[in-house]
Amino acid sequence: MSNHSAKSVKGRKGDVASHDGAESWFYSDIVKEHFFNPKNFVMDDMDAAAFNAVGKVGSPACGDELRVWMVVDPTSERIQSFKWKTFGCGSAIASTSMASVMVTENGGMTLDEARRLKPQDIMERLGGLPQRKFHCSVLCDKALRDAINDYYRRVEQFDKIHVEAQRIIDPVSKVTDHDIEEAVLEGAHTLELVQQRTKVGVGNPGCLPAVEELIRFYKEKYFG
User: Fold this and answer.
1) Does the annotation mark 140 as catalytic?
2) Where are the domains positioned within the chain?
3) What predicted TM-score, i.e. pTM, was given to this entire model?
4) Cys-Cys crosslink for 114: which of 104, 109, 145, 183, Cβ 3.0 to 4.6 Å?
5) 136 flagged as catalytic
6) What does the pLDDT read at residue 192?
């Protein structure tokens, strides 16, 4: 076998290896199952009477939009039902499908437990995702948190709503820490790549040390 062939085989073995750092593009059997047979997926928007919480993240114009509908038991605050639909890739579909199983199994997670669900937890249950597709598990995590906030808004428990604040990093380009987080999740792991995506610091180089610090923080948070 040639060296090239040997490297190809080795790459295929480590395809979704979220644990060993490999970066190939093949998916685990669990991911394939949730992509071809998504759990709790709905084709049309849910009837307003059928749920008491809704969450949304993304936009079709950007290629990824996710909507989720939940039924929350008002006494126990456990998630009884989690339905969803997405305009997204296979990783987004598989991640949301798995998340829907995780939050409803064994009697359902409480809203507090669901808030603690991390993208890494979803990815681990899937058997890994290619690194450049990790942001897809973040997408369903954010939609879940948005739905939880919506539930508390509907029952007027406003003190339990968690607002994810954004901080302006570059007043010139109006780039926020959230913009930098999204860029890192989408694969921009260097200052140069983040600048290409956001234009942060182009006219205001004084903010670049803060940008570099955020890049390191988000890389460690999401990729270890």
Assistant:
1) no
2) 18-160, 168-223
3) 0.71
4) 109
5) yes
6) 96
